[in-house]
Structure to design on (70 residues):
């Protein structure tokens, strides 16, 4: 099991996957918006998205879990 975490604080602008999706290593999972910049958040491992822990529009802090990969 692996957690996809926010690399910086910002708003979840767009979720690119949903629970049940297969992801590859370094695949973008979400895009954060911070200071008018779009920051892609990628998976570190390949696997199956077990759960998405945030919704579009949510504010996240650095280190917050965005998704769980099994």
């Amino acid at each position: 099991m692996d957690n996809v975490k926010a690399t910086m604080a910002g708003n979840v602008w767009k979720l690119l996957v949903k629970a049940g999706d297969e992801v590859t290593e370094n695949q973008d999972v979400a895009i954060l918006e911070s200071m008018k910049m779009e920051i892609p958040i990628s998976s570190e491992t390949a696997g199956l998205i077990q759960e998405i822990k945030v919704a579009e529009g949510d504010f996240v802090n650095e280190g917050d879990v965005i998704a769980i990969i099994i």
Remarks:
- The domain at 2-69 is CATH 2.40.50.100 (OB fold (Dihydrolipoamide Acetyltransferase, E2P)).
- The beta strands are 2-5, 10-15, 22-23, 28-34, 37-42, 47-52, 59-60, 65-69.
